[in-house]
Amino acid sequence: MMSQHPATWGQPTPANSSFNQFNTFPLPQTQRGQSSHAHHGPVGHTQQPLVTGTSVLGLKYDGGVMIAADNLASYGSLARFRDIQRLHPLGQHTLLGVAGDMSDFQWLKKELDALLREEDALALTDSHPSLSPKNIYELLSNLFYARRSKMNPVWNAVLVGGWDKVKKESFLAYVDLLGTTYTAPTLATGFGAHLAQPLLREAYEAKAGIDGNGPLLTKEEAEKVLEDCMKVLFYRDARSLNKYQIATITSEGVDISDSKSADTYWKFAEGLRGYGAQTQ
Amino acid sequence: MFRNSYDSDNTTFSPQGKLFQVEYALEAVKQGSAAIGLRSKTHAVLLTLKRSTGELATYQKKLIRIDDHVGVAIAGLTSDARVLSNFMRQQAMRSRMTFGRAIPVGRIVQSIADRAQTNTQEYGRRPYGVGFLVIGEDETGPHLYEFSPSGTAFEYYAHSIGARSQSAKTYLEKNFENFEDAPLAELINHGLSALHDTLQQDKSLSLHNTSIAIIGPPDAAIENLGQSAAAKRGNFRVWENQGVEELLKAWRRSRGEPEDGPQEEAAQPPAAEQAQSAEGSENAPAGAPAGGEDVTMEEQ
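Above: the input entities. Below: the structure tokens describing the complete assembly.
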């Protein structure tokens, strides 16, 4: 833009100058950013996920909640990154299990960690308890819905697991890129919603009943069910990996296991037509 | 025109290290009518003395509800109070909408204190001419804070601001050790006694000039729960006019006075000169019009 100021008339204005020389209103800038599109190119929206994580499973058990996810971040159908942790603790009593776009997950981690750091700093002066799992879930559902409404979704499906210190009960809920939210004693994202959720429900309802009033699974039982489900997913979900972690969230806090593998059996595959060496 | 050469803008220190505009703003708070706050381990209470601008005017409200769990009493410029309380309401709603959480009381007070501080440091602005007593209840229990135009926010067991508030402070300092375990009725009686001490000789607390706000579990013995759903839930509620009558009667009974209060008051409306001379004027700058108990323009 040309400078209109008498002292510098005719010279180009600096590229980063945002001064409105003509006092026009509304200002010749978009609401979104401080700088104009001409200088920085068009606004980019996430149109599709690139590096993705697959299913996350969640299950309430006696004394807490467990969340499982494998360690794979796929690049399309390529098993690109095989050592990615998709379970992220937030403060003392909340944990996120994230499926979908891994760069959006990294952004989400950064934003939420910053928020919690700010909360911790404020708590130094007023000792007020930090955000509860419910508070963080509420924030995420607002965020995801707002972003999808701007045609720029946060391309993830997230399970929030936690322990509510006030109500003294476990917390488990789902939110995805459309802002869809729901809660249940067993949850799964993506492929897991089809393959693992029925198995999780079966195990949960076998003890607790369909109304959930009976006893909950013990920690050992819950871990066993999740391991079975991870194995089923590894057999049938082509974007999965037999290397996963399980997080437990209790009144004691968050504990994320080391990576582990399920015993799998592939002998039967040799006899499958189209799999092994063809004999006829 | 100016009282000294360092008060024409708020960002320049005097050689004595004072910011005169800030001090004048604190003066505006001192000239507003009194507000008192006190707290037990279950309740927080505000009591205020209302003024009217004249015989034909209503008494100006001094208690503002911010949210279910926060409310303020004001002393100073009412219009500045409205700006700040609107901001507090926004903060409270923002917290409820984004986190589904009632905003912690200390943080909402800090947010207006930070705004007030900016006004003491940036050229071309002026400090707010209003002070708040803020009561609220959050996950850490009931709280009482004072906000002042100098940009400070402190927490108190009991505190008073506004005209003649020093007398109330004297009462509170003498009695505050009993507040922590006091039941609601007793807490209110202490508050009314303190408020009574801020009155001029010939004035008394009446249902017209007294208003009381409470946060904490309701007490059906002294509160008319049919009147207030907020009270039933233990949320911030204000008792004034007819609503404060029973509370005043209970207080007079506790002092062994006739429960209907002094009777001659109604027969003797204050004369204009009398009102002009009045409270708050002892702190007023020389030559400035005095803010009387019953006749003022701006400050409440």
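Note for the figure: The helical segments of chain A are 37-40, 102-126, 133-149, 191-195, 197-208, 219-236.
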